[in-house]
Amino acid sequence: MGLWAQFALDMDAHRAVTLVGGGGKTSIMYALAQEARTAGRTVIVTTSTHILPHPRLLLTGNPDPEHLRACLKEHGILMLGARSKENKLCGVGDIGLCKEAASVVVVEGDGAKFLPLKAPEAHEPAIPPATDAVIAVAGMDSVGQPIEAVCHRPQRVCALLDKPPDALVTREDVAVILSSPQGGRKGVAPYMAFRCALNKAECNPQAARWIAQALKDRGIPAAITSFREEERGGLCWF
For residue 86, what pLDDT band results from cuts at 50, 70 and 90? Predict the structure, then answer.
């Protein structure tokens, strides 16, 4: 089963997907993009925050739909963004305009400093209004570890869970963070489909299955994901 199907997402209905949460967003973003491209869709990969550019994808900072269509006609997939002084990409343009140019748009809309779990600050995440589906990501390597060691914005996680920084992250904690309007569901509009990704499942497959069922009981579809070393960051797919 493909990744889009695992998330119960449809490339025609959910044309703009934004990823939020903890570690694994970039790998999932490129996996979704690669699968869409293989299915014959034109794809724009972009960000509403900051990400590293992919070394083998065409990069443009021009968000004009006619320019994007011309690039996609030749290349099929591209990255849209402007380079910062730190050589990271900043988002440019409107996701609605991107949807005019491409069949599928995949957006990284949150940062986690490579940590597997997070709760967002007041200004986070950056979910574009034209998003059709949001995927909140958590790494299974967070389970059993201290909040202060594995969580981005640990003070927000502590406040959400009502736990001290040295408390160990439990399976239920991950389910609570992902499903909470102060956690993974923060900023998700009613018209947006909401899904969760339980990444690095190889670290704790039993926890991944338990959390997936806990989310299902809350009415939230979840996919259990795992990537080989060469797949992480999407470098091997393009």
Answer: confident
